[in-house]
Known about the structure:
This protein is an alpha+beta fold. The protein has 20 helices and twelve strands. It has helices at about 1-10, 25-35, 55, 65-70, 75-100, 105-115, 115-120, 130-145, 145-160, 170-180, 185-190, 190-205, 210-215, 225-240, 250-270, 275-290, 300-315, 330-335, 345-380, 390-395, and strands at about 45, 50-55, 385, 400, 410-415, 430-440, 450, 455, 460, 465-470, 480-490, 500. A hairpin with a 5-residue loop joins strand 9 and strand 10. Mean pLDDT is about 90; it is low at about 495-500 and about 500-505.
Amino acid sequence: MLAALLCLGLTLPFLAKPVHVDDANFLMLAQGARLDAWRPHEIPVNWQGTLEPAFQVLSNPPGIGWWLAPVVDAPVWAQHLWMLPWLLLALWGAGTLGKALADQRTAAMLLLGSSPVVLLASQSLTPDLPLLACAVAGLGGFWALGPRAAWGFGLLTGCAVLFRYSGLTLLPLLLWAGWSKKRLPQALAGFVPLLALVAHDLHAYGDVHLLAMTRFQSIANTPRDVLRKGIASLAMLGGAGLLPFLSGRRGLVGAVLGAALGGVGVWISSLSGIGAVMTVLSVASGGGVIAALSAKKGVDRWLMAWGLGGLLFLLSLRFSATRYWLPFLPALVIAALRLRPNRGVLGATVALQAILALLLSVDDQNLALAQQEAAEWIGPGPGSVSGHWGWQHHMQAQGWTPLNEDSVPMGRLAVAENPWPQSPDPQTCLQRERSLSLPDRWPGPRVHSALGAANLHAHVVAGDPPVETYAPWTWSNEPYERVALYSVCSPQASEGLPESWIPGTPWVP
Length: 509
């Protein structure tokens, strides 16, 4: 109980964190569920630069939209409270699985609950926290409790697919566990949510969303893309997933190999300075974490399939993000605990993870606050807004309309630099009215930095050209956000005005 309260307490200071990054996606899906609960993906969104149905661009099942629909108009602190039961369920699952497979209930709860990426997911409105809860509580209950309860926990494991399609990777693990525990019929219950979701999609849309999103995700599979995603995934695991100190000697070997792989990332992306240093350190840490996996016994092989299978799955996605590790993180937690780490090292690891989690959370909240402040500084619409994430959410709340790529703005154009701004029609003349730079007043680590080459939320930062990154955090003092407000003008009015955007010149926000 104390372990659960401690982990819950870490997230309470961030209940008022503004809508941030992909939170905006899922609040739109919740709006769709509010308008039509059976067809939430019919709501139109602008997330790739063009207004289109969410079915075409939001590569997530409707579960989070259904969950958030009752609180979609509530204050943001109430929306965050609405998500916290999933954290408690995840912690219970970690303790149950830790007790069953490593005889360490409290340590498993603390190690998972202090993970920076778990704490950050607990502050978000994304499907990642429910996904984690279904995965670890479902598999934990299936392993630890009796045959009768296994029916329900098999079903709970399968419910992960209602929140993210990465939940599909849990079904083979569930069958393996069912075979090992002589509970194969109960394991088959995990397929019920998937079959129900497919039937729902065919009735609601005439197409299976999972198949549509498989096509949507399969666009970054060149050898270089896959290599970059692999390096970034390891960096994100070791930089903001788990720290590698519990892996012992094998962790040192993994760290050396990881450092070499990080060097490859530095080379192919031409990184230098602090970006290069943080890349090598993060990938080395990820190598140390992965090294905890073992093929020694049946349970170890099951955990290895869970962890390495997750890494292989991440290579198939469009891009890497730290939160994508969440359904696979419990395997690495339990694998580390099965190595029987020293109690002092375990305590120090939990403490360091909690400190790092709080530092990264403060910075991520600062970025969210900066975009909210920038939107308030721009003021009410009408007009066109360029950029996504929380910035778009706050601007739409003030009457602005997301700009379609290569279209003419509606009289005025408000642009934010970080959240992937869409460029207007190149023949449009825009004259800058005013601009704002929100400076860095935070001495701690940064989770989104072009100068420091790090991004918690992806393996690239917006720019011209975009900045390739690997590490989930770094050190930098660049502004949190830069925004500008333009008015549409005639080409003649732009003569002699250096802060006007002239047709035919590069689009520089």
